[in-house]
């Protein structure tokens, strides 16, 4: 089973705390997306991120996002376990399920430690 480095886990936790503290949807989604990038190698954290994204979609009453998150909840654990996940992908329903994306520079630097 893949384990992520302590620094990645720390980044993940910081982003999740920031998402929970955010008042505006665009801010909480920003932090959830960053948490998703940090969590991808870890099956548990990856799945937890999609559950949080699903809850956020429900909070906004966004059916498309909620449905997209249900699919991602189902595939997150197997994808992480197999090491088959698109690096940098934000995890949103608008992002292709297997589309790699650039990792923000500050996040890439933090995760490289």
TrEMBL record:
A Pfam family that the UniProt record links to this protein: DUF3703
Organism, scientific name: Rhodococcus koreensis
Name of this chain's protein: DUF3703 domain-containing protein
Domain of life assignment: Bacteria
Annotated InterPro entries: DUF3703
């Amino acid at each position: 089973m893949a384990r992520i480095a302590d620094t990645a886990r720390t980044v993940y936790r910081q982003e999740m705390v920031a998402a929970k503290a955010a008042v505006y949807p665009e801010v909480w989604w920003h932090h959830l997306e960053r948490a998703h990038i940090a969590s991808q190698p870890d099956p548990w954290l990856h799945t937890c991120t999609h559950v949080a994204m699903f809850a956020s979609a429900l909070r906004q009453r966004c059916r498309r996002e909620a449905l997209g998150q249900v699919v991602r909840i189902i595939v997150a654990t197997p994808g992480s376990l197999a090491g088959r996940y698109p690096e940098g992908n934000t995890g949103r329903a608008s992002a292709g399920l297997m589309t790699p994306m650039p990792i923000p520079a500050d996040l890439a630097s933090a995760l490289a430690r």
